[in-house]
């Protein structure tokens, strides 16, 4: 969940490295560091506790120069946030490295290395890699060989970059379970954990595969697979926007990404729906065969993506007549399960590098799943490369830790796939398909209307200034929307928030109801509205404070203890997506009032690339 940047060039690279870290700060931000080697083999390391700006100020006031360097922004796993635990880590005066991931056998290795006379100065698992490389380099002919021998001793997930002061014109990288990308320049080369870090210096990238070790100089990139054999990796031309990491007119990335949703949804649907139908071929090669043969869908995801899968379960079963299970990836990968005949595995991930989801995909390949499809936002990510079919969300870069546009674009992508599947299964005829597609065409405009409620929701958020708890309610496919809303509020405002299917109130949650527990209800007009009204009355009768988001046809009237936020009427099929937006705005404005760090909430990071 940390960020890595590296460079081998003729020019001074310190500023390039720090700028790359700025672009990766969403991946980790409790400390940061940089190490650079100059042409005279002098190695200079600067580390700082706190955000990247602390490091940037230190670098600016120092005389750090050199053309080969590595940098890192950290999200702590082993060892508290501190300067001594910050990367790069060193072994002696020569070896410096940065590392993402977790070395599971670090305690065993630490004991081994202590016995060899190495003294550890940090609490991190990373330091064992540095000492192992130094040890192996005593007998290895090259740094590359030393890193290969070191990698063979490591258990767990890692993306690591190593440099040696005595060999100032090369770095060696190794990837196992944690993504690394190489950026190709002219007379210079770069590397990072995310191509976003390098868009200001190159557009040409190679993605390392599982087990790869690569040696990078100014003019060459030599890659070796897990067996030590030379391999070639495809070069990709990135079309990501360089200014994706700029907030522009917005106060926070989260706010920017909430407001980008209309255009993001248009991008998601472009070329995939016509005037009255879903274009099946746009899903990808092999999609037709999958649609014909699938009899069951297993969705595996984490966090916000899991909530998207929970919404889709209602769609798969109601619209396509195909049974659907949704499971948290960290649970799925560690339990014994039965693979149903002709079962399609669908993984959901914004980054495509979520460690548990990726492990679940690899496990599913061993368990006889008919096929594996990923719904993902990052082309070239591990999930995309390792799945049989990739249906890209095209949300654009999302930097705010609390996912917004990634969630709504996942829902649209899932809805398009369900529609295609329902058509194949004979449950969605041409008229019904046109109705769904018409609703999808209207969705970006409807989301614009939801965004127009920003000011009223900002005023509403003031009621939460002194609140420490909140309860969200929904029914049917709006229950997982309530779950997602509660996740957003707790992530960025630090209010303890829970979500319940409204029918469960009598089975325990009613005990929590009082004037200090605001209850937020997602209540569009649908078949369950009357049932939901009964649940609302249960809260009112116990003195609860209600905030009901409902459309004009729902028949609610504001009264003491109950505020109504009247939303436009939207088609039922897109209503879960539509009602997500006011929930995002509510969380955002409550967080502003609470004074929390909206984009980088405490203890969290964007891409969860460790267990």
Could you characterize what this model shows?
It catalyses: D-fructose 6-phosphate + L-glutamine = D-glucosamine 6-phosphate + L-glutamate. GO terms for molecular function: carbohydrate derivative binding; glutamine-fructose-6-phosphate transaminase (isomerizing) activity. By secondary structure, the protein is of the alpha/beta class. It has three domains: 3-237, 4-Layer Sandwich (Glutamine Phosphoribosylpyrophosphate, subunit 1, domain 1), CATH 3.60.20; 246-428, Glucose-6-phosphate isomerase like protein, domain 1 (Rossmann fold, 3-Layer(aba) Sandwich); 450-599, Rossmann fold. It contains 18 helices and 25 strands. The longest helix is centred in the last third of the chain and has 22 residues, at 430-451. It is globular, with a radius of gyration of 25 Å. The chain starts with a strand and ends in a 17-residue tail after the last helix.
User: Helix count, per DSSP?
Assistant: 18
Shape: globular
Q: For the largest sheet, list the strands in their spatial order.
A: 3-2-4-1-10-9-11-15
Question: What is the CATH class designation of the largest domain?
Answer: Alpha Beta
Number of structurally distinct domains:
3
Summarize the model shown.
The chain is an alpha/beta fold and 611 residues long.
Task: Give the arrangement of secondary structure elements.
Layout: E1 3-8, H1 14-23, E2 31-37, E3 43-49, H2 52-60, E4 68-74, E5 89-91, E6 95-103, H3 106-115, H4 127-137, H5 143-151, E7 156-164, E8 171-176, E9 181-184, E10 189-192, E11 204-207, E12 213-216, E13 221-224, E14 230-231, E15 235-237, H6 253-259, H7 261-269, H8 287-293, E16 296-301, H9 303-319, E17 323-328, H10 329-332, E18 343-349, H11 355-366, E19 371-376, H12 382-386, E20 389-392, H13 405-424, H14 430-451, H15 454-461, E21 469-474, H16 478-493, E22 496-501, E23 518-523, H17 529-540, E24 545-551, E25 562-567, H18 575-594
Parallel strand pairs: 16-17, 16-18, 18-19, 19-20, 21-22, 21-23, 23-24, 24-25
Antiparallel strand pairs: 1-4, 1-10, 2-3, 2-4, 5-6, 6-7, 7-8, 8-12, 9-10, 9-11, 11-15, 12-13, 13-14
Helix pairs in contact: 1-2, 4-5, 7-13, 7-14, 9-13, 9-16, 13-14, 14-18, 15-18, 16-18
Function: Catalyzes the first step in hexosamine metabolism, converting fructose-6P into glucosamine-6P using glutamine as a nitrogen source.
Pfam families: GATase_6, SIS
EC number: 2.6.1.16
């Amino acid at each position: 969940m940390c960020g890595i940047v590296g460079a081998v060039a003729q020019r001074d690279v310190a500023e390039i490295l720090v700028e790359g870290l700025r672009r990766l700060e969403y991946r980790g931000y409790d400390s940061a560091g940089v190490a650079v080697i100059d042409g005279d083999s002098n190695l200079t390391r600067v580390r700082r506790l706190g955000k990247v700006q602390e490091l940037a100020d230190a670098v600016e006031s120092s005389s750090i120069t050199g053309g080969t360097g590595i940098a890192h922004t950290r999200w702590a796993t082993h060892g508290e946030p501190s300067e001594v635990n910050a990367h790069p880590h060193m072994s002696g005066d020569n070896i410096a490295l940065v590392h993402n991931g977790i070395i599971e056998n670090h305690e065993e290795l630490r004991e081994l290395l202590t016995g060899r006379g190495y003294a550890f100065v940090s609490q991190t698992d990373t330091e064992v890699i540095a000492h192992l490389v130094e040890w192996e380099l005593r007998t290895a002919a090259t740094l590359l060989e030393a890193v290969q021998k070191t990698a063979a001793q490591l258990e767990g997930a890692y993306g690591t970059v190593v440099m040696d002061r005595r060999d100032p014109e090369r770095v060696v990288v190794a990837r196992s379970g944690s993504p690394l990308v190489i950026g190709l320049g002219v007379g210079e080369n770069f590397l990072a954990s995310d191509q976003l870090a390098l868009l200001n210096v190159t557009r040409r990238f190679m993605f390392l595969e599982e087990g790869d070790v690569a040696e990078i100089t100014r003019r060459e990139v030599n890659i070796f697979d897990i067996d030590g054999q030379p391999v070639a990796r495809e070069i990709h031309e990135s079309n990501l926007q360089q200014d994706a990491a700029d907030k522009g007119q917005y106060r926070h990335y989260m706010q920017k990404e909430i407001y980008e949703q209309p255009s993001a949804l248009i991008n998601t649907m472009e070329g995939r729906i016509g005037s009255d139908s879903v274009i099946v071929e746009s899903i990808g090669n092999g999609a037709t065969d999958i649609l014909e043969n699938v009899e069951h869908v297993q969705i595996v995801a984490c966090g916000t993506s899991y909530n998207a899968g929970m919404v889709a379960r209602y769609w798969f079963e109601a619209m396509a007549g195909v049974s659907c299970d949704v499971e948290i990836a960290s649970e799925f990968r560690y339990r014994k399960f039965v693979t149903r005949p002709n079962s399609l595995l669908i993984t959901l991930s914004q980054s495509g590098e979520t460690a548990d989801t990726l492990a679940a995909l690899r496990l599913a390949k061993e368990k006889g799943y008919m096929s594996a499809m990923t719904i993902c936002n990052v082309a070239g990510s591990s999930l995309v490369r390792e799945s049989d079919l990739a249906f890209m969300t095209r949300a654009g870069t999302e930097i705010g830790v609390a996912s917004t546009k990634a969630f709504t674009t996942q829902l649209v992508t899932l809805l398009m796939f369900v529609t295609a599947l329902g058509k194949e299964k004979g449950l969605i005829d041409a008229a019904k398909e046109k109705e769904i597609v018409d609703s999808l065409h209207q969705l970006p405009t409807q989301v614009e209307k939801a965004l127009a409620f920003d000011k009223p929701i900002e005023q509403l958020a003031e009621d939460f200034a002194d609140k420490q708890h909140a309860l969200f309610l929904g029914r049917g496919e709006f229950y997982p929307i309530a779950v997602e809303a509660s996740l957003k509020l707790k992530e960025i405002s630090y209010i303890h928030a829970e979500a319940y299917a409204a029918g469960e109130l009598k089975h325990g949650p009613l005990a929590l109801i009082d004037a200090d527990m605001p209850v937020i209800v997602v209540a569009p007009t649908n078949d369950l509205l009357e049932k939901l009204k009964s649940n609302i009355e249960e809260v009112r009768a116990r003195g609860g404070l209600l905030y009901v988001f409902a459309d004009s046809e729902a028949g609610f009237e504001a009264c003491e203890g109950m505020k109504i936020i009247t939303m436009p009427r939207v088609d039922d099929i897109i209503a879960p997506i539509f009602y997500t937006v006011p929930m995002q705005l509510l969380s955002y404005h409550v967080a502003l009032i609470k004074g929390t760090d909206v984009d980088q909430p405490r203890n969290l990071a964007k891409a969860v690339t460790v267990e």
